[in-house]
Amino acid sequence: MAAISKTVSKAGYAKLQEELEYLITVKRREVAQKLKEARSFGDLSENAEYDEAKNEQAILESKINELELLISNATVVEDDDISVNEIGVGSIIKIKDIELDEIEDLQIVGSTESDPDNGKISDESPIGKAALKHKVGDIFEAETPAGLLKFEVIDISK
């Protein structure tokens, strides 16, 4: 299976590395301890605690592998690479919903950093994807679950 490169900000990359380090150094030790304790309960064929610990270990190792793959294939957007002329990953944008006449501040981030409640939308989300490459004054449309929305780019910053 070919790895897909994800675009992440410098902060997002650091967060991924932090999470991986935690899983390897802390969580692995915790799961190993649970396995050790479960083994001490005797017959492994009828040991629910052992089965649960083995499942937890498999999920943890899968998450570690996924993070390692993501980190090794990540494209990190440096702060200096963020344009104020054209929307890209890392851009902080002010857009106006034309129909509702509402202005919204958003940051376009990689999918691993998405946090819509805090104004961080993925470059793969309907609005994020539609906004990419647009400039101040441009009008773009985004096909969202709520229907087709029209936006005007008011400002781009980093």
Automatic annotation (TrEMBL):
Pfam families listed in its UniProt record: GreA_GreB, GreA_GreB_N
NCBIfam families attached to this UniProt entry: greA, PRK00226.1-4
Species assigned in the record: Hominimerdicola aceti
PROSITE patterns linked to this entry: GREAB_1
Protein name, per record: Transcription elongation factor GreA
Keywords, comma-separated and alphabetical: Coiled coil, DNA-binding, Elongation factor, Protein biosynthesis, Transcription, Transcription regulation
Family membership noted in the UniProt record: Belongs to the GreA/GreB family.
Domain called Transcription elongation factor GreA/GreB N-terminal: residue spans: 8-76
Start and end residues of each Transcription elongation factor GreA/GreB C-terminal domain: 85-157
GO biological process: DNA-templated transcription elongation; regulation of DNA-templated transcription elongation
Phylogenetic lineage: Bacteria, Bacillati, Bacillota, Clostridia, Eubacteriales
GO MF terms, alphabetically ordered: DNA binding; RNA polymerase binding; translation elongation factor activity
Gene behind the chain: greA
Its biological purpose: Necessary for efficient RNA polymerase transcription elongation past template-encoded arresting sites. The arresting sites in DNA have the property of trapping a certain fraction of elongating RNA polymerases that pass through, resulting in locked ternary complexes. Cleavage of the nascent transcript by cleavage factors such as GreA or GreB allows the resumption of elongation from the new 3'terminus. GreA releases sequences of 2 to 3 nucleotides.
